Amino acid sequence: MSKKRGLSADEKRTRMLEIFHQSKDFYQLKELEKIAPKEKGITMQSVKEVVQSLVDDHLVDSEKIGTSIYFWSFPSKEKNAKKRKLIDLQNDLDETVKKLKKTTDSITLESVGREPSDERTQLLAALDQLTKEEKEIIKELQKYRDSDPEYIEKIKNEIEDLKHAINRWTENIYILKSYMKNTFQMDNEAIEQNFNIPPDMDYMEE
């Protein structure tokens, strides 16, 4: 004998709505927990979850009156919810169609003057060839750059500027070391260890 299949979530929702639509009455949760198992085969444990899902989807209304919460739903409620969903989907479709038309118009506009032709194909091929040749020439020039007097002079000047900057920082470090010796009575070794200063630090020859 096969085991009886339980109700799916959609079947529970449909049957729960039938309770409201057939009776057109108002219910508290505890009343639904008694009615649903007997009349619709919905387990008492799942009644609250099913009702809440219908409320979340605006298929069932709920209102707190005093200390009690009442639930209700009329046949027109489901119809109006479906109608509202249809309107939302139609609006989404209209918006998508507008965006598609705008994109299509943009593509058409950008394509003007770019239509396939023998002349355009030849020009693109020539441009591609010239671009390749330019890259090869730049690559070849790079080989001789090290022998370029202007480039060599530029490198020399940059090296000199770097030496000046290094020596300025070296001078600042010596001044700070002298200050710490006099103020905190620290020796050279302690200062160098604490501040990661190389023992053989010295000025760069210029």
Q: Could you walk me through the main structural features you see in this protein, from its secondary elements to its overall organization?
A:
A three-stranded antiparallel β-sheet has the order 1-3-2. It contains seven helices and three strands; from the N terminus they run H-E-H-H-E-E-H-H-H-H. It has helices at residues 9-23, 29-40, 44-56, 75-111, 118-144, 149-184, 188-194; strands at residues 27-28, 61-65, 68-72. With 206 residues, the protein is mostly helical. The chain is elongated, with a radius of gyration of 42 Å.
Summarize this entry quickly:
With 206 residues, the protein is mainly alpha-helical.
SSE diagram, text form:
Blueprint: H1 9-23, E1 27-28, H2 29-40, H3 44-56, E2 61-65, E3 68-72, H4 75-111, H5 118-144, H6 149-184, H7 188-194
Antiparallel strand pairs: 1-3, 2-3
Subcellular location: Nucleus
GO molecular function, one term: double-stranded DNA binding
Pfam family, one: Mnd1
Structural features:
3 strands; elongated; LZ3wCH; double-stranded DNA binding; Mnd1; nucleus; coiled coil
